[in-house]
Amino acid sequence: MISDRKLEHLLLCAHCDVQYKHKNTGFDDIEFIHRALPEVNKEKIDLSTEILGKEMKSPIIISAMTGGHPSALALNRELSRAVNKMEIGMGLGSQRAAIENPDLVNTYDIARKEAPSSLLIGNIGAPQIEYAPQAVEMIDADALAIHLNPLQESIQPEGDIDACGFIDSIGEIVKTVDVPVIAKETGAGISFEDAVLLENKGVDAIDVAGSGGTSWAAVETYRAEDDYMGNLYWDWGIPTAVSTVEVTQSVNIPVISSGGIRSGLDAAKAIALGSEAVGIALPVLKEAYVGYKEVVNVIERFNESLKAAMFLVGASNLDELRSSNLIIRGQTREWLHERGFNTQKYARRS
User: Fold this and answer.
1) 229: pLDDT strictly greater than 70
2) pLDDT digits (tens, 9 = 90+) for 186-226
3) How do residues 284-308 score in pLDDT, each as one tens digit?
4) Which residues pair with 30 in a beta bridge?
5) 293, HSE (Cβ side, Cα atoms, 13 Å)
6) What is the pLDDT of residues 78-93, one digit of tens each?
7) Is residue 203 within 8 Å of 183, Cβ to Cβ?
């Protein structure tokens, strides 16, 4: 059952080592140019932003994690309470389970009840055109994410491995709903080629969800009777920093950077590379089991460490952060150079 599978995914992410083993996000290869004369008052740094028509106090979105199992109700309640208090955004897990079984709707719509004015993002799969309006209505969504997870499906014992027609399906979903549509990977990244295809199909934003954080091949390895495929593809994907550069340099729509972002410094680097917002998941998942105050503490730490990075590069707001100087080195630079991207443009922007 879909509901049982969702519970397994939650428990595995919370209690097992599901991180990439030999690949990181690439953010370690990103170095800011320190400003000894920042000319900024750290206490007056402005983290506020607007994305997809919604204003947020900081550029943090709690990425899609859960819903569709009774145990997810408490988690989404605590997460959305924190989202409401901190005035940030939140994505819900795939809503297919509740569309097929209305008894599970409360595991999703609790988010809107607890966060009545926050940015909430619905979630369906690319082929689920007929589910799109219901997903939006279920949580009064401000946007709808279409999740892309071919890696997970290829490892998952019950995975759907027929991806034919996904591009056209995404185009139809864009026409079907009256809210912005986000194309979202689930941990393996998005290349510039796919980003261009998605923009041409009318999506309003892209969430790169790159590799280096949680590996969904790893999650499915724990569930599979035979772990050969999962172990072989555990580290598959485009690192988040690489994917962020590839996509932001290739499209003219907002980009959300997610996948292994673990601190405000990571977030600062992602935004300096061009993203409009960042998504985090695992850092708040375990805290959500404790309560919303612990989730709030995580968000506050992210905000403070993001402000520290902005102070040290002399950025008083996010637009100035996107114009700050940075160096791309190591394997991230090598990857981007091989793909034809100019990394020197970041070094002397200001």
Assistant:
1) yes
2) 999 999 999 999 999 999 999 999 999 887 777 887 887 67
3) 988 999 999 999 999 999 999 999 9
4) 328
5) 0
6) 999 999 999 999 999 9
7) yes
Four-point Cα dihedral 205, 134, 168, 180, nearest 10 = -20
**Greatest distance between any 2 Cα atoms in the chain:** 58
pLDDT value of residue 227:
84
Mean pLDDT of the chain: 93
The torsion angles phi and psi of 152, rounded to 5 degrees, stand at -60, -45
Please report, as a single letter, which amino acid is at residue 4.
D
- Residue type present at position 320: E
pLDDT at 14: 65
CA–chain centroid gap for 296, Å, is 18
CB of 163 closer than 8 Å to CB of 141: no
How far from 138 is each of 5, 90, 113, 142, 327, CA to CA, in Å? 21, 15, 11, 11, 44
The tokens for 17 are: 């080592």
3-state SS, the chain, equals CHHHHHHHHHHHHHHCCCECCCCCCCHHHEEECCCCCCCCCHHHCECCEEECCEEECCCEEECCCCCCCCCHHHHHHHHHHHHHHHCCEEECCCCHHHHHCHHHCHHHHHHHHHCCCCEEEEEEECCCHHHHHHHHHHHCCCEEEEEECHHHHHHCCCCCCCCCCHHHHHHHHHHHCCCCEEEEECCCCCCHHHHHHHHHCCCCEEECCCECCECHHHHHHHHCCCCHHHHHCCCCCCEHHHHHHHHHCCCCCCEEEECCCCCHHHHHHHHHCCCCEEEECHHHHHHHHHCHHHHHHHHHHHHHHHHHHHHHHCCCEHHHHCCCCEEECHHHHHHHHHCCCCCHHHCCCC
Q: How far apart are CA 132 and CA 82, in angstroms?
A: 26
pLDDT band at 38 (very low <50, low <70, confident <90, very high): very high
Residue count of the chain: 350
Confidence check: pLDDT of 329 > 90: yes
Q: How far is 113 from 347, CA to CA, in rounded Å?
A: 45
Domains of the chain (ranges, CATH numbers): 2-346 (3.20.20.70)
